[in-house]
Design goal:
mainly alpha
Length: 210
């Protein structure tokens, strides 16, 4: 499988090359390099808070002109290789309720489940512990090679912790507060250094007179 190696050179996503909304939202999800986009699907991109089809098209257009070798979700396509994917829709083993919940979450194939943790699935509406137990029974019986959350991938879907606007505002305020504290500490240090400098200068002059 042709996975991106951590040691390979990565290209950072620069704020000045994209809309502020796009840059901020991607950074909030831990997507800071263009190569990171190889590891998420377009549906996962569209589920990032405050991003929509317009932002997706903006990024795809930018990649097409500047980084044609980078395509959103490309590494996932390479991982699958020629192995056939098993669609969730129309499955004879799952209830309509479970199928609809999974598809709503962007899980269209059984193989997609390896990128989702159990806790991630349980956060989906209309999907509770009973649904999870039924799904696990189906996997154990019909698809034993597929294990929920088994993929150790940097940008697996459970890493996307979606934040409400109020939560984002709180985190932003915490970050600003930390910055203010650091700036205050720097001013205190500058003052202490200035006092120490004055003290040394005075002592130097005093010693010179002696």
């Amino acid at each position: 499988m042709n996975k991106i190696k951590d040691s390979e050179t990565k290209t950072p996503i620069l704020r000045e090359t994209h809309s502020n909304r796009l840059w901020v939202c991607l950074k909030a999800e831990g997507i800071t390099n263009y190569e990171d986009l190889l590891s998420i699907t377009e549906s996962q991109f569209l589920r990032i808070p405050n991003l929509g089809r317009k932002s997706l098209n903006e990024m795809k257009e930018y990649l097409r002109f500047h980084f044609p070798h980078i395509k959103i979700g490309k590494s996932l396509e390479m991982d699958s290789g020629d192995v056939p994917m098993t669609p969730i829709r129309g499955s004879d083993y799952l209830t309509v309720r479970i199928i609809n919940a999974l598809i709503t979450k962007g899980i269209n194939f059984y193989e997609d489940l390896i990128y989702h943790s159990e806790s991630d699935l349980l956060r989906q509406a209309n999907f509770g512990r009973k649904s999870l137990a039924e799904l696990k029974d189906v996997l154990e019986t019909c698809y034993p090679n597929i294990v929920i959350g088994s993929a150790k991938h940097k940008h697996e879907p459970q890493s996307f912790v979606y934040k409400s606007p109020s939560e984002e505002a709180r985190l932003l305020e915490e970050a600003n507060s930390t910055i203010r504290e650091l700036m205050f500490a720097m001013r205190v240090m500058e003052g202490a250094l200035a006092q120490a400098k004055n003290y040394l200068e005075k002592n130097g002059k005093s010693n010179a007179h002696h």
